[in-house]
Amino acid sequence: MNGNNSTNGNSVKETSKPVANNPLTGKTLLVVNTGSLKKKFVWQKLNRLGLTLIALNKEVNWAQPYVDHWILADTTNHDECLAQIDKFTADHPEINIDGAFTFFEDDVLLTSKITDRFEFIGIPLEVSAKVRNKFAWREFCRIHNLPTVGHKMIKSEVDLEAAALELNFPLVLKPVYGSSSAFVLKANDLNELRENYNYIKKTLSSKIESALNDGQEILVEEYIDGEEVDIDLLIQNGRVKFLAVSDNAKTREPFFIETDRFTPSNLPTKEQEDLSCLVDETLDRLGVQDGCLHFEAKVTNHGPIAIEINLRLGGDETYSSIKEAWRVDLIEGAVKVALGVYLPKVKMPKEPYKYLIAKTLNIDRSGILVKLDIDEEALKSKKFLEEFEIFKKVGEPVFVPPEGYEYLGWLMVSGGNFLDAQANLNEVLSCFRFEVAKFSAASSLGRTLRRNHSSFSALNTGVSLSDNKIEKIRKMSIKNQRNLHIGIACNAYDESSADSAIELDLTSIGDNIQKTLEERGYKVSFFDFNDLNKVFNDLAKSDVDMVFNVCERINNSSLLEPHVASILDTLQIPYTGSNPFTLGLCIDKIRVKKLLTYHQIPTPAWDYVYDLNEAVDDDLRYPLIVKPANTDNSIGITNDSVVSNKEELKKQLQYVIGELGRPALIEEYIEGDEYDVSVIGSEEDDLRVLPLMRSIFDKMPEGHWHIYPFEAKFGDSDVYSKGITKELPPKNISKTLEALLSEIALDTYNILDCHDYGRIEIRVDKNNNPYVLELNPNPSINIGDAVPHSAELIGLDYGDFIEEIIRLAIKRYQSRPPYSHLQSGIM
User: Fold this and answer.
1) Nearest CA to 566 among 523, 543, 594, 532?
2) Which residues contact 39 (CB under 8 A, 6 or more apart)?
3) How confident is the model at residue 826 (pLDDT cuts 50, 70, 90)?
């Protein structure tokens, strides 16, 4: 097949070097379900065995390089699958399928139906039906005098109450057809039992655990106290050809979250022999003759008790741990069994070839992965690191109980004994650093929607953004809005009095907004805050309805910018943009860093000093960047601001503290792209993240750090204009990263209580780990600036954008009480 959706055909398959004297060469194997990308290693191994591989799957997917033929059918619809296999064999009489195999718990029953229907070697459906259904499995053990525990099927709360009277606490609730401990919960008393039952009934879903497609009934059974073990085995013609026991560390209850697995088992020989006898007796009574099985049991004071049997290869680390410890390939063994190729009995050595510990990388609470650093260089030297798999990328959610049953990944290390392996595990774990931002009602993480890179991202609240509250509440049409008298708070300089490009820019902002609004029919008055006495009197006497606040200075100082909003508050004049508290806070970069750190917003590691005699944290890693802690427009930032050693750091601190007279903020320098994330709105239902803008520094000449110094923004050197590439929207950015940047920006915007519009600057490192640099609550919105430029991509020209800010401000004043920023403060 060529990736189309026809039911039968060929694909371009990766070829591997054939193995000499391979008894599997020329055999054709039907593999039921490709599984997820996590199972790629299985397909790679199958491909190396020289087989002709047919995949029975709902669609052609990532496994295509390993597949010779596809049979497309929904594997949850068994009749459809059997019909499509019939069609394939009829359409391809030259292809003789020799056997069927699955490594996916969801398809154990389907595979048994296939083996029965086509007389392949495998587990009969009669057996699979007993084992897959946990209630039927417990009943089978009871009837055949195999060790088991008290159990009952629960169909209602009446059954639950009856079970609590008949069975002994603690009790365990579990789905009859569950897998991977999903929705398995321990209850110590009746109240917990009721709560856990209601939780499972409410949340049980095949979308979370696909094995539940076979059924969603619930079983309760008595808790088995003891050491948990895995027994992996190969059986052919009723003879066990290989059997090995591994120990599991105690699971994290009440959700039975897996932690560590130790191969081989450290149990005494007698207990391992008892387990082997239990397996033999159980399989004999079931009538299992052929298969690769994963047997889970507990070793108790009264002997071993089987928990369940997985009639397929164990998941995740099982294959690798058995192969490394005993040099037994379970995939190859399972395939030989399924195809009727003789499998010799494995002669077990007295000692394993390696001692292994596999560790599941769990997190404590559901959230978004916001940082993942893997020291790959250090890992290369760890010869005892056998394997690791990371299933999540930065920006992706990780759902752990009670929201879901996921984990970051797993890793496996080896040693000459378990003490060595444990030491090696600790050494490897130090090479992995990850951070997860917890979900909370106040957080935007995981809650934004964006159709494409050029559209805005908004909170997924279920409310249409076209539902304009100002239309409903104030009954104000756009025509009436244009009847408003708008004041513009600004700073005005003529060319002769302007000392810098910044001052000329401040003047042009006010001029452009005034001109734009007048062209659209607004009455506009200009208020120049360079003359404070006059502007205060003029404002107090004016009849303006609202002030568009783009003023950045009073008494020629940007530190007094917040007081413009304070003056407007005291005069009871509504205004656009953020409140004085937010404006003042964001000038103080040190307090912003403290607040971001408190709220677990990812930001570069940092320290600060107010005096040259203060020590800087020695844990900070060079290079560092030294910034004045209370300036804007990159004032005080030059190419020398990035320092590579203590001598350069001391020199730069002398410049910031000694010459500029400012406290110094010191951050770890992040090498990577920089994103400007523009946000507009104030209320949950009108917040929008505009298309992102990315700055790429790959064309910067040698000797220039990849930053935006003052010269880059207001100088006339072409070093930065030619060295920095800006992309709006960014090209080739993943949806995951785009969503993560948007959501972190929204959380930053909300935490700092920004109003109407703002811009968040975020750096990403080589692994796309994001770091918030700062928030500008009233950023420059001159023609061509980042925020209005981004707004153009969603269809707002400059005039539309300016009017949208006015609309958002009106809505905010209507929906919030006066001076709400002084009542609620920062989150």
Assistant:
1) 532
2) 103, 104
3) very low
Contacts of 597 (CB under 8 A, 6+ apart): 603
Average pLDDT of span 662-668:
94
- CATH architecture observed for domain 464-573: 3-Layer(aba) Sandwich (3.40)
Mean pLDDT computed over 247-266:
89
- Burial classification of residue 549, based on how many CB atoms lie within 10 Å of its CB (0-12 exposed, 13-18 middle, 19 or more buried): buried
Q: Return the H-helix or E-strand segment holding 433.
A: strand 432-438
Helices marked H in 20-123: 40-48, 78-91, 108-118
- Please give the mean pLDDT across all residues of the chain: 88
Regarding beta strands 355-361 and 409-415, do their DSSP bridges make them parallel or antiparallel, or are they unpaired?
Answer: antiparallel
pLDDT band at 464 (very low <50, low <70, confident <90, very high): very low
Please name the residue that has the structure tokens 């404590």.
364
CATH code that applies to domain 226-350:
3.30.470.20
| Cβ-Cβ contacts under 8 Å for 450 (sequence gap 6 or more) | 456, 457, 458, 689, 735, 738, 739, 742
- The three-state secondary structure class of 492 is coil
Q: For the domain with range 150-223, which CATH number is right: 1.10.940.10, 3.20.20.70, 3.40.50.880, 3.30.1490.20?
A: 3.30.1490.20
Q: How far apart are CA 676 and CA 741, in angstroms?
A: 10
Residues across the chain:
827
Per-domain residue ranges of the chain: 28-120, 150-223, 226-350, 354-439, 464-573
**Is residue 98 within a helix (H) or strand (E), and if so which, with residue range?**
none
Look up tokens 């509250």; give the residue: 469
Say yes or no: do domains 28-120 and 464-573 share a fold. yes
Is the pLDDT at 253 greater than 70, yes or no?
yes
CATH homologous superfamily of 354-439: ATP-grasp fold, B domain (3.30.470.20)
Q: Is the pLDDT of residue 476 over 50?
A: no
The answer to whether residues 318 and 109 touch, using CB atoms and an 8 Å cutoff, is: no
Question: For residues 32 and 316, what is the distance between their CA atoms, to the nearest angstrom?
Answer: 18
CATH class belonging to 28-120: alpha beta
